[in-house]
Amino acid sequence: ISVIRLLIQNNPKEVDTFHIFYELDRLKFQLDLILNLARMDNFKNDLVIDELSLNDIVKSIIQENKRLFIQNEIFPKFEAERNFTIYSDRKWLEFVITQLIHNAVKFSNHKSKLFISIKSNLNNSILMIQDFGLGIKKKDMPRIFELYYTGTNGRESSQSSGIGLYLVKKFVDELNYQIKIESKENEGTLVSIYFPSEK
Q1: CA distance 51 to 29
Q2: N or C: which end of the chain has fewer CB within 10 A?
Q3: Which tens digit of pLDDT belongs to each residue from 171-193?
Q4: How far is CA 178 from CA 47, 74, 79, 80, in A?
């Protein structure tokens, strides 16, 4: 992947760089899924907990995935009540948020919006990702975190590996966060992650 990127950068006038970079992004994303699945046996040994700005991480991920948004004609909007600080593992947190954003874009309607927001209640900082697309069929909801379960939408579109949400749930459970997914067919999906507030 790195060599291909260098070739493109050295010959920008000879190729359609946007679409090649987009496909490289997709390839890297899928490779990361497989590598992270392989790491699960030693997951606890791979955690490094730091004080992190959740706002900055979300903004960085949105910027890094701009080709994804452009290609799929999705318009992300980020809002936060304030600057939220959490304690987490940066690498895995970035993976989780990226995975959820990719899922949201994958099953969104073209030219629709994607809302990403952070708010708080008495006990938690809450990251919410809301899309307006296919939604999840009711019969699939109980199994969405199962390894290799792709669901009806994933099988029909051939875009789902059945790995991403499994890894998301593993990370959330390991760090004692909570994840909630609400969805309506043909209306969209709202994913919320609850981070315990520091006392």
Answers
A1: 26
A2: C
A3: 999 999 999 999 999 999 999 99
A4: 18, 27, 21, 19
